[in-house]
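Justification of computing resources. Each target in the renewal requires a structure prediction run like the one illustrated here; the chain below, 477 residues long, is used simply to show the kind of job we budget for.
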Amino acid sequence: MQFFSPLLFLMMASLAGAEVTGAAKAPADALPEVQKLDGEVPEGAVVVIPLKGEVSKAQFLFLRRVIKMGEAANASAYILDMDTPGGELGAAVDILKALMKVKAPTYTYVDPNAGSAGALIALGTKHIWMAPVSAIGAAAPVMGGGQEIPETLNAKIVSYYSGYFRSTAENSGHNPELAEAFINGEKGVKVGGKVISEEGELLTLSAQEAVQKIGGKPLLAEGIAASVPELVRAAGLKGPVVEAEPSGFERAALVITMLAPLFLIGGIVGTYIEFKSPGFGVPGILAGISFLLFFAGHYVAGLTGMEVAAFFVLGMVLVLLELIFIPGIVVVALAGTLLMLGSLLWAMVDYYPTAPEWPSFDLFLLPLANLGVAIGLAGVAIFLLAQFFPKIPVLRRLVLTTSEPAGGSLTMDEPGAGRLPVRAGDRGKALSMLRPVGRAEFGGESFDARSEGDFIPPGADVVALRVEGSEVVVERT
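Resulting C-alpha cells:
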C-alpha cells in the first residue's frame, strides 16, 4: 500500500496537469459568423441592417422591408450597423417609427460615425455600442445643400425636433438631456454633477466618452466592440446572425410608391382600352407593365408581399372567366373585381406582422386616397376615350391587329360621304372578335363595329341596331 500511494499521487498529478494543459489550449469563445441574407430571414435570427451613407427615404424603405421580414420570422434582435454623417430628418423620423414597432431588442453599432440624423436614429434603439474609434452627435438641422437655416425657422425646427427626440430617447431608456444637446447648441448638459456639454456648442461624444460610467451607469453606450460579431458575443445575443443588403431597386421603389396613383391609372385605362379593342395589343401590355411595377415597387418598399399580387391575378382571372366563358353570371365578375380592388388597396397599407390582426382605420387613409384618386382620374380618362377614341388614328393603330381586314370606317359627318350603306336591321358578319369593339362586314365592306351585350366571336352573324359616331352597334343573331 505504501508503494502504490506515491504512484497514485503521480498519476493524479499527471491527469491534473493534462487537464490544465487542455484548458490552456482550448480556444476562446469563437465569434459568431455573419451570413449574407439570401431569401427569407431564419427563425429567431439576429438581423444586421447596414445604414451607410446619408439617411434617406430609400434607407427607410430598405429598413422597413427587412424589419417586416424579421418580425415574420420572430427575429431575436436587430442591429443597425451605422456609418452616416446624417441626412433627412423626415426619413430619420420614419425609421424611428418603424423601429418602435418591433418586439425584439434593437441595437445600434456606431462604426465609425453616427452624425446628425444618425445620432437621433441611434437614440431610438434600446442599446448603443461603439467601435473603438467612433463618434456620435452633432444633429443640428441644416438645409438640404448644407447651408444654415434662417434663424426664425431654425428655432422652430430645433424646438419641435428636440422635443420629439427627447421623447424618443426617454422611451428607449437613454438620457433625454443628451438627445436635446445633440440637436440644440444652446443646451448645456450635466450628468451627476459632471459637465458633459457646455452651452453654445453641439454635443458630440467619442466612443470612450459615450461609455464612461457616471453614478454606475454608462453615459450613453453600453460598450465598445471591434466588430458586429464581437457585439453579438458581448451582448449575449442568440441565434444565427444574418446581414441584409439593400436592393438596387430601393430607390426605384421610392419613386414607384410616390407615383402609385399614376401606375394605377395606367393599369386601369390600359385594361379598358384593351377590352374595347380586338386582339391583344399595346394597351394590354402597358396595363400589365403598370400593375407589375406597382406591385413590385410596393414589395421592394416593404409594403406588401407577393401573395397580394397573387390575389390580384386571381381576381383578374375571375373577371376574364365570366367575360369570355360564362357571361351573365354577375357574382363571378363582382368577386374578381373586389379581389383586385382589395389587393390594390392592401398593397399600399403599411402593415407590420406584430400589429393587431385588424389594423386601425388610420392605416387605410392614404391608400384609400391614392386608390380613390386613381379610380377617379381613370374614370375621366375612360370617359374622354369613349368620346374621342374612335376619331384618333394613332390610338386606333395601337389596338387593331394587323390581321384585321381592311375597310372603310362608318362615319356620318365626312364631307361628301353622303348617306352610308348600313341601316338598322342590315345583316352582316363579325370579321374579328367583338369584345365589344372590332370589325364587321356589311354588304361586302368592312366597318368598325361594337357589340351590344355579349362578346361576339369572329364569323358570327350579326344585325345592325344603329349607327353611333364611327361605329355600327350590332348584336348577334
